[in-house]
Amino acid sequence: MLDIKFIRSNPDEVVRAMKTRGMDLDLSEFLSLDERRRKILSEVEQLKSKRNTVSKEIGMMKKNGENADELVKEMGQVGDEIKKLDDDVKEIDAALRNIVLAIPNIPDKSLPIGGEQDYRVERTWGEPKQFDFEAKGHWDIGEKLNILDFERATKVTGTRFTFYRGLGAKLERAVISLMLDIHTTENGYEELIPPYMANKDSMTGTGQLPKFAEDMFKLEGMDYYLIPTAEVPVTNYYRDEILDEKNLPIKHCAFSPCFRAEAGSYGRDTRGIIRQHQFHKVELVKFAHPENSFEEL
Fold first, then answer.
1. Distance between CA atoms of 251 and 233, rounded to whole angstroms?
2. How far apart are CA 13 and CA 96, in angstroms?
3. Which one of 69, 214, 263, 275 is CB 3.0 to 4.6 Å from 269, fit for a cystine?
4. 83-142: pLDDT as tens digits
5. Which residues, listed in sequence order, are joined to residue 250 by a DSSP beta bridge?
6. Do residues 197 and 266 make contact, with C-beta atoms less than 8 angstroms apart?
């Protein structure tokens, strides 16, 4: 989430940055609410200062045997006004938070502007295999080899689920172990086995909420969501903690099943295992100093 102070001080920069992401951002409501909030806080401080001064005066009057009923009554009204203004600030803070949560991060200036057609290849490894015949889809090969079963998964659960069986299950498990072993033994990552559910605060902390709420599976009657990636619990592992800079970077890897409703993918990748409601993934998360984070990619 972007810092409110940064948005307040650099509204034009934020709007320009969002345009590079194809987003027309209107910050007029944010700026209006923010200005109103600051005015209310100033008024509250003035009222509190007045109350403190008059309270001392009331104390002196009572000490001298004087009647201070009118001032006491007036300060009661001041207290009511302060409470009302504090409540107004809480409402504004909630509205500002909702606005800021909907604003994506500012892209790095080195990134190309545009959509998929403007993507830039950073690096490649090897060459794509060229066939002298028409290649079959993995779904056809998987069913023919009896290592993937889409039909029974649809019967048991629904579409976009798959049974891995026999060598298919063994291959899936082997690839997961291979990735975990490589990163823990050769690349210095510490393995975590995370919870497969996370609460609303965790989902908000990594940006899934509120924007991607429709793409997530929520447990009915509970503040828990099935994780869309192990990135959510692993990133939130240190949430609300201060890390010692000398210990950075901290590197974690984690395997988990991932659960996604894929609400916005109707008609896309309807066959095979590319866009499933449940799939497996080994996630890499690195906590680094902001000045060195680009080099840590």
1. 14
2. 18
3. 275
4. 999 999 999 999 999 999 999 999 888 888 877 788 888 889 999 889 999 999 999 999
5. 287
6. no
Question: Residues near 294 by Cβ (< 8 Å), separated by ≥ 6?
Answer: 108
The single residue listed with the structure tokens 């034009």 is 12
**Burial annotation 167-191 (CB, 10 A radius, 16+ → b, else e):** ebeeeeeeeeeebbeebeeeeebee
Amino acid code (one letter) for 130? Q
- Which of 279-296 are b and which e, b meaning 16 or more Cβ less than 10 Å from the residue's Cβ? beebbebebeeeeeeeee
Does the predicted model carry a pTM greater than 0.90? no
C-alpha span between 225 and 215 (Å, rounded) = 11
Give CA separation, 245 vs 91, 248, 291, in Å.
36, 5, 11
Residues in the chain: 297
Domains in the chain: ranges and CATH:
26-101 (1.10.287.40), 164-287 (3.30.930.10)
Centroid of chain to Cα 127: 35
Residues 16-28 pLDDT 10s: 999 988 889 999 9
Question: What is residue 294's predicted lDDT score, i.e. its pLDDT?
Answer: 85
Q: How far apart are CA 264 and CA 143, in angstroms?
A: 27
Question: Does the pLDDT value for residue 269 go beyond 70?
Answer: no
Indicate the residue type of 225: Y
Q: How far apart are CA 60 and CA 44, in angstroms?
A: 24
